[in-house]
Amino acid sequence: MRLYALLIVLISLAGCGGPRAVIGPLASSGAVPRSTESIYLATTRDRSNNPSLPYSARRSMALNFAQFDIGIPQNHVSGTVETSGRTPDPARHFAAQAYRPIDGKKQFIAQLDAALAQRVPKDREIVIFIHGYNNNIADSVFRSAQIAYDYNIRAVSLHYAWPSGGSLPLYVFDRDSAIFGRGGLAETIEIAAQTKASRILLVGHSMGSYVVMEALRDLAMTGRRKTLERIGGVVLAAPDIDVDVFQSQVNDIGALPKPFTIVVSRRDRALGISRRLAGGHPRVGSGSDIAMLQKNEIAVLDASDTDGGTHNVFASSQTLMDVVNNNELMRSLLRDDQGPANKAIFADGASVIKGAASLVIFLPARILDGMTKVTASR
Q: Which of 43, 127, 161, 237 has its CA 20 to 30 A from that of 134?
């Protein structure tokens, strides 16, 4: 009864909503989207004959590959994924303009390399997005396209979809599927490492962050450190991970990829419910142990006071997008191992920096140590 009651609360937080998003059928009207984002897919979801959802919640032991061209609608509002549960209208909804299954790993690598070659050298990177709880394939592919468009990502967008049940009551199923999906993500990272990408970045949201940490742990504990070394940055947004479990994962991984950044919010009500479902154990994404994260060389972005600090703030906040796209400190924390070192940014060397839109940045220990040494030498 307790689990049922908490899920009812979670449903009320999500709102009644309408029919769930669908990928297809492919857009055939004369409406022209505002823009088109090409999303490459690696998934441990099983193939489906349903054109609305070409990949189901069934678990596949082997990776499946595809490419989607996703149209961004003319009426798109930053931070929003405009969807329809029926045939999407490209003028008003995210819609698949094209869907191409890809036959096997070698062909997938070849297509990723072809996409990289079409970019200028500085953009020849791969960004892997890993979705969270309660996503069907349309939800997660469209979210990947929205993030790529709104954050002006010029790299190749690779989406890893683990087999979420896509239903609010299936929290336990999703937790099991997240564990199931870690091997597929580890393999996806290995595939990306075999391309000609100059850098690989991972972005995990919510329960997808758990998949990320488990995949990194898998790579480390099976001796695949060369693949780990190809990762040039990790961002975990609202990670739905028990704090003690996270520390155990870090211990098993050893040296984390750098830079490593976590977005937290004390106002994340979804993580509050997750904590109650877990018997009161705090979640990393709630910001309950920032000192532990700093000690592990992790930068922390506290978005509690940024546009409501909701569970999806990393993808929905226009102010956060503006800061990431235009702020020197933010770009450095997400892309540069050493971080910026000028006095204007670090002021008096405090460990907490209040940025735009009430965003608070907690710097990792390695940067703080470097600042202390610089200050002491003056």
A: 127
Calculate Rg over the CA atoms of the chain.
Answer: 20
DSSP 168-195: TT-HHHHHHHHHHHHHHHHHHHHHHHTS
What does the pLDDT look like over 347-368, one tens digit per residue?
A: 333 444 454 546 788 878 665 5
Nearest alpha-carbon partner for 166 in 183, 147, 142, 150: 142
Q: Which of 39, 222, 349 is nearest to 339 (CA)?
A: 349
pLDDT confidence of 331, banded at 50, 70, 90?
low
The count of C-alpha atoms lying within 13 angstroms of the C-alpha of 306, restricted to the half-sphere facing its C-beta, is 28
Distance separating alpha carbons of residues 340 and 344, to the nearest angstrom? 10
Q: Mean pLDDT check: name the lowest of 175-179, 192-196, 257-261, 343-347.
A: 343-347
Tell me how far CA of residue 307 lies from CA of 17, 18, 52, 292, in angstroms.
Answer: 21, 24, 33, 26
Q: What is the pLDDT of residue 328?
A: 61
Contacts of 368 (CB under 8 A, 6+ apart): 294, 349, 351
- Quote the CA–CA distance of 348 and 328 in Å, as a whole number: 18
Provide the token pair at 167: 């239903």
Angle formed by the axes of helices 207-221 and 171-193, to 10°?
Answer: 50
* Gap between the Cα atoms of 64 and 42, Å rounded: 6
Name every residue whose Cβ is closer than 8 Å to that of residue 369 and which is 6 or more positions away in sequence.
none
**Which among 230, 234, 214, 232 is positioned nearest to 222, based on CA atoms?**
214
pLDDT tens figures, 241-277: 999 999 999 999 999 999 999 999 999 999 999 999 8
Domain ranges of the chain: 2-237
Q: Regarding the domain delimited by 2-237, which CATH topology (the fold level of the hierarchy) does it fall under?
A: Rossmann fold (3.40.50)
Token pair, residue 89, equals 């209208």
Stronger pLDDT, 303 or 327, i.e. the higher one: 303
Q: ω before 25 within 30° of 0 (cis)?
A: yes
Neighbours of 224 (CB within 10 A): 15
